[in-house]
Design brief:
Blueprint lengths: L9 E4 L4 E4 L7 E6 L10 H19 L3 E6 L17 H9 L3 H18 L15 H13 L3 E4 L2 E4 L1 H7 L32 E6 L15 E3 L3 H11 L3 E7 L3 H16 L4 E7 L2 E3 L2 E2 L10 H6 L11 H9 L7 E3 L1 H22 L11 H16 L4 H20 L6 H18 L9 H22 L3 H13 L2 E5 L4 E5 L1
Parallel strand pairs: 3-4, 3-9, 9-10, 11-13
Antiparallel strand pairs: 1-2, 5-6, 6-7, 7-8, 11-12, 14-15
């Protein structure tokens, strides 16, 4: 858009723990890496929130004119997922329970992940590498760390020497933890006693005879450690240093902390300039998680087939619900919260539809200065660390202008309306990634039904049947549809 943006884009950097003006390494281009899913089960809404958050970041950077390379991995080996894992590889376990090959499990849930994000209107990343597709890169990375003296081998497994690293660097720089804190967050796998120190994390694990997913390496037939894949793939596709590294808040420690340590040792520099972390979606006041069963699946929301909800909700209304909270804020999921969000979403879509049919005037009362100030406020909101709830508030202010023009209380010029339509739609659709519900039959039927009731009420008023007229008006008001009687016609607003 040809607008002078008064405020620069600022991003909250988890590394510095403050908002910083965003300055990309290469002018006009952005490299962004986001940790993707471990594909051993259906993606739940808590996972989706993280990916919707970074989809919005991706969208806005593109909207500002940046050329963005967005890399998001697929973790397709179970033991790569969690340092607290004990026992069986999660993908291998799922394969055994369902009598499938591990890669069948991976394929099934990768397809599910893509289908769900598509329903939420997420844009695909530029590159989507898999952990198993980059075993050679991970082996080379281990060799590099080993050559620098920060890795040691025991019985075919390779470990990162955290205490040695911490002598010259700060293991905990991202999370703000001291080295002693990490004792409680280390892998409790077989072979724990092999480590020099309990804080050390696995770079390569020798596979037990029954371990299905295994690869040859200089050390043993085995599999890479969880943290290794992201360092290997982010640097391969974005370089040794890139702009943004994102993920869920729960990945800050140990996963991202380990990534920083690995990169510093192998490449001599920290990988990303800006670290971004999306906060949790909670259910019943508890973190949504696969492991605890405290979660809700997107398809349960779309169908309404869950005791947690009073009805079904569309993907776009659900996306709107998530965007009503800042990505760094906790967000609690409930049926009442979804119902309130849906009302807001419907109001916004009604505004989009009204915007298409607004009449212009050669004697405008809604000034160019007012509309440009509103436009600036939309940019200001998103430039403040991608503040989607403040942007949504500004869009509702824009909706107020739409209703005023629709009712005849304000007049707008053709030039201003054209620009206003472009900007309003751009922020609703291109930036927030919402989809117009009027494109489906339901919305069209709803709009037609309201117009029919307005016509019936008009006929009742002409016949001086005031009781029926009031009955129609009050019934619509109960559905949050307010009628506005003008001199020549009746309009309506969805509240």
């Amino acid at each position: 858009m040809d607008v002078h943006i008064e405020t620069p884009l600022k991003i909250y950097n988890s590394l510095s723990k403050q908002k910083e003006v965003f300055t990309p390494l290469n002018e006009g281009s952005v490299g962004m890496y986001v940790c993707g899913p471990t594909v051993y089960s259906n993606v739940h809404l808590g996972n989706v929130r993280t990916f919707v958050s970074f989809d919005t970041v991706f969208r806005y950077l593109k909207f500002l004119g940046y050329k963005v390379r967005y890399v998001r991995n697929i973790t397709d080996v179970g033991h790569l997922e969690n340092d607290a894992d004990t026992g069986e590889d999660r993908i291998a376990k799922k394969a055994r329970l369902e009598q499938l090959e591990p890669m069948e499990v991976v394929q099934r849930y990768t397809v599910d992940f893509h289908e769900i994000l598509q329903k939420f209107n997420n844009l695909p990343p530029s590159i989507e590498p898999t952990a198993t597709g980059h075993i050679l890169e991970q082996i080379e990375l281990i060799k590099s760390i080993e050559d620098k003296g920060f890795a040691y081998t025991v019985n075919g497994s390779v470990y990162f020497d955290v205490l040695k690293y911490n002598k010259t660097a700060h293991y905990g720089i991202l999370s703000g933890r001291d080295i002693e804190d990490s004792v409680h967050n280390t892998r409790a796998l077989d072979g724990q006693s092999e480590k020099k120190n309990p804080q050390d994390f696995a770079l390569w694990k020798k596979a037990s005879p029954e371990h299905i997913m295994r690869w040859p390496s200089p050390w043993s037939d085995g599999f890479p450690g969880w943290h290794l894949e992201c360092t290997a793939m982010s640097t391969k596709y974005l370089g040794e240093q890139f702009d943004i590294h994102g993920g869920g808040m729960d990945l800050k420690f140990p996963h991202h902390e380990c990534e920083i340590a690995q990169a510093n040792c192998s490449h001599g520099k920290s990988p990303a300039n800006y670290w971004m972390h999306a906060n949790m979606l909670t259910l019943n006041g508890q973190k949504m998680a696969k492991s605890t069963g405290n979660n809700i699946l997107p398809n349960e929301i779309f169908s309404g087939n869950t005791p947690l909800l009073s009805k079904a909700f569309s993907p776009s209304a659900t996306r709107f619900f998530m965007l009503q909270a800042h990505y760094r804020s906790n967000l609690d999921f409930s049926s009442s919260a979804m119902e309130a969000s849906e009302k807001g979403f419907d109001r916004l879509m009604q505004g989009v539809r009204l915007l298409k049919s607004l009449k212009t005037s050669e004697k405008p009362t809604l000034t160019t200065e007012v509309l440009l100030a509103w436009e600036q406020s939309c940019y200001t909101a998103m430039n403040d660390d991608f503040n989607s709830p403040v942007l949504i508030a500004q869009l509702f202010e824009g909706l107020r202008y739409i209703n005023l023009v629709h009712q005849g209380a304000e007049r707008i010029s053709h030039t201003d309306l054209t620009r206003f339509q472009t900007v309003f739609n751009a922020f609703v659709f291109d930036v927030l990634g919402l989809e117009d519900a009027s494109e489906n039959n339901y919305s069209a039927q709803l709009e037609g039904s309201i117009e029919l009731l307005i016509q019936l009420r008009k006929e009742a008023r002409e016949q001086k049947n005031w009781a029926l007229s009031d009955q129609i008006r009050d019934a619509l008001l109960e559905l949050n549809i307010q009628l506005k009687d003008g001199k020549e016609e009746t309009s309506y607003i969805i509240q």
